[in-house]
Records
---
Amino acid sequence: EAGVTQFPSHSVIEKGQTVTLRCDPISGHDNLYWYRRVMGKEIKFLLHFVKESKQDESGMPNNRFLAERTGGTYSTLKVQPAELEDSGVYFCASSQDSAAVLYQETQYFGPGTRLLVL
Amino acid sequence: AQSVAQPEDQVNVAEGNPLTVKCTYSVSGNPYLFWYVQYPNRGLQFLLKYITGDNLVKGSYGFEAEFNKSQTSFHLKKPSALVSDSALYFCAVRGLGGYSTLTFGKGTMLLVSP
């Protein structure tokens, strides 16, 4: 079974440009999460999709970040315009849909996209 | 609010010796605790989790973790370290107060010397 995949693995852009990150969850997983780790700090939650709906986007830093999950399959995270502080590793994770035990579910992570904004 | 503390930025241990990576947490209600490992240039890999039941949880690659409610700790352990265990280890907690969120610690770098 294929794991969570993310594209690209690395991205280097200039301040003010736009970058779009993609995540393909494990097949059949309704829950999709985005996290970010900035330079040696904690991994921080960004948002959570259940199928195509945003369940929780409380971690999104500002309106320069836009996440979509059309059709409830893959997801994209767009940063427009990118700022220096957006640099970091963006992780995607997925888990199966079992709402009754959501707290107990294991989230499976992708390899991450390393974003560097110059 | 829920939080996780990993007090050591780095742990050094010789191959064959036991290892412990420390984690303490703060959460409302019952905690759901997780350990993940990140090998160089790789993503986060799930190691083990505590949901309920036995306080000693066994996971992948010979790792185990002990849940201690009174000390609010969930330390990761392995009886005999391997050089290949060298990686970055993250402890995470999920509680009823955070419906979706896994809250992570800063991570602990484990270095196992030959």
Note: The first strand of chain B starts at residue 3 and ends at 5.
---
Amino acid sequence: QVQLQQWGAGLLKPSETLSLTCGVYGESLSGYSWSWIRQSPGRGLEWIGEIHYSGSTTYSPSLKSRVTMSIDTSKDQFSLKLSSVTAADTAVYYCARNSTEYLFDFWGQGTLVTVSS
Amino acid sequence: QSVLTQPPSASGTPGQRVTISCSGNTSNIGTYYVYWYQQLPGAAPKLLIYRDNQRPSGVPDRFSGSKSGTSASLAISGLRSEDEADYFCAAWHDSLSGRWVFGGGTKLTVL
């Protein structure tokens, strides 16, 4: 059974960079794309972007200028960096798997990221 | 303001059939598959329906999806107390730069 486990800093100050990593267990990264999604009371569920196991990326247009995703197939991990955060970036961040047939069929446990001075 | 529109709430009594709608346009639901998710309190969303009306293994056949034009629906029959959760629809949105979009979510209450 595939499991996604994510980790990273939960409290940031404005202008800092959010950094999260998602480890994939029970399945190789190969053959799939891997997404980051966030959820907040004000914005609901918001797709941030995805990275293919080959390393190609697709980012949400609204966040593209601040997002960087990377992947390490040797460690079965992928990561998210979001620069210049503000209070509006406060949310629960999830990692999730995409396949050609399913969409977001496995999710990480979620990480609450709070941006506050 | 979500790209896909869902009613904020729905309710039903045990055993009833409930439907939740998801409205979009030709840039999303009208052209691409719809997916549905169930989110229990404090948990990550769980894939319930994929490709408009397909159930992943393990999802009871009480859950069914349909689509017509630019709208989609999730139906839950034989409602149970454990179905009380938030439900979200999702689809690809093809604009100048495509992205996955979600509905605002529907809170289902089992009375």
Note: The longest strand of chain B covers residues 85-93.
